[in-house]
């Protein structure tokens, strides 16, 4: 599941930019890191980390999970600079 998400994010980075670095930490299922114009599954320190399940990551990226509601309900935990996470919407626009 994370491999498919990684491929789609990498595809989006071909035509759009993402400033800063962001990690989706899905625990034992793995991580996806957006940094330096690339998407990778190699863990590293980032400006912002979103801790969530892989299922919630899929919902978030498909627009089926409101990020603010998810944070308030504890489905997403944000650490670091949340302004970086807000830039994610620009990368996901069709």
Structural commentary:
By secondary structure, the chain is of the alpha+beta class. The protein has a single domain, classed as 2-Layer Sandwich (Nonspecific Lipid-transfer Protein, Chain A), CATH 3.30.1050. The protein has helices at residues 2-15, 54-62, 67-72, 82-86, 88-92, and strands at 22-25, 31-35, 38-40, 48-51, 77-80. It has a 5-stranded mixed beta sheet with strand order 3-2-1-4-5. Strand 1 and strand 2 (31-35) form a beta hairpin. The chain is globular and about 35 Å long. The model has no long low-confidence stretch (mean pLDDT 93).
Number of strands: 5
CATH homologous superfamily placement: SCP2 sterol-binding domain
Backbone CA Rg: 12 Å
The number of distinct structural domains comes to: 1
Low-confidence stretches: none
Large-scale geometry: globular
User: What average pLDDT do the residues reach?
Assistant: 93
Helicity range of the residues?
40-55%
The tally of helices reads 5
In terms of DSSP E residues, the strand content is: 15-25%
Which structural class matches the secondary elements? alpha+beta
